[in-house]
Design goal:
Ribosomal Protein L22, Chain A, 2 domains, alpha+beta, globular, 5 helices, binds coenzyme A, three-stranded antiparallel sheet
């Protein structure tokens, strides 16, 4: 195959080493610039299930895979993770990672599994006060809802967005390890930096376990992640 060419729909590739064996790669994507041959030229296979998808979906998939391949190369692996039936990416042996995309930016974390056990990454736009209010009972547990008391409407909306994103990161980190779907009432933020499992997912991931998350402010939103080193 000829050298992969970066499609015009992708730009601003950025790479950051977060810790030993843990990288974050991001790029911008523009669905309106996606061409019929963008996948072929990039050397990335479009899954059959996405053949009829709208340009935005195909382009975000391409952007995520492009970033994933860049990150894997930095770990010495030349591969593009496939999409499993559950939609979780299938990371090549010796690696793990997570993908998120929103509003024209794709972000990927890849990790060397000699050091890292679980990785989940998610980005969300800050929810508006109205939307956060509508979604709060779905996303937050009763104890998390109580913790909103005393916050201004904007602070509440931002807290709800952050909990939402952290829980999605948790899901992306643990689903590949447990094969179990779990939902927003199955984990709880009990302090500013961690989530506690309210449900046992497997013998290794039990109710009561506390998992640290990190986050950064993003253009009009939040990027959160969970990266757990081996015990
Ligand atoms: C799967 C889910 C987390 C994706 O999040 P999203 O905000 O909709 O979309 P994002 O852009 O952030 O992430 C999409 C990427 O997640 C990854 N992903 C999808 N399903 C996944 C799974 N089961 N496990 C791990 N990663 C998964 C994929 O890489 C996908 O991108 P791709 O299809 O281009 O490869 C979300 O749709 C979902 O089902 N949430 C409900 C489960 C949940 O969050 N529970 C909370 C537990 S406390």
């Amino acid at each position: 195959m000829p050298d992969a060419q970066r499609p015009a729909s992708l730009s601003n590739l950025h790479r950051e080493e977060m810790a030993q064996g843990l990288l974050r790669i991001s790029c911008r994507y523009q669905p309106e610039r996606l061409l019929d041959d963008s996948f072929t030229r990039a050397g990335i296979t479009l899954p059959a299930s996405l053949a009829g998808a709208v340009a935005k979906r195909r382009c975000e998939y391409l952007a995520g895979r492009w970033c994933a391949r860049e990150g894997l190369r930095s770990l010495g692996v030349d591969a593009v993770p496939e999409m499993s039936r559950s939609r979780a990416p299938v990371w090549p042996e010796g690696t793990l990672g997570s993908i998120t995309h929103s509003h024209g930016i794709a972000e990927v974390m890849v990790a060397d599994n000699r050091y890292w056990h679980a990785v989940g990454l998610d980005t969300e736009q800050w929810l508006s006060v109205e939307r956060a209010n509508r979604l709060r009972r779905e996303l937050l547990t009763p104890a998390e809802l109580e913790q909103l008391a005393g916050l201004t409407p904007i602070q509440r909306a931002n807290r709800i967005t952050l909990i939402f994103s952290a829980k999605e990161s948790l899901f992306k980190a643990l689903y590949p390890l447990t094969g179990k779907r779990f939902y927003f009432q199955d984990a709880e933020r009990r302090d500013a930096r961690s989530l506690t499992l309210l449900k046992t997912l497997s013998a290794d991931w039990k109710k009561g376990m506390t998992l640290p998350f990190r986050w950064r402010e993003r253009q009009q939103g939040v990027l959160s992640w969970i990266a757990l080193p081996h015990p």
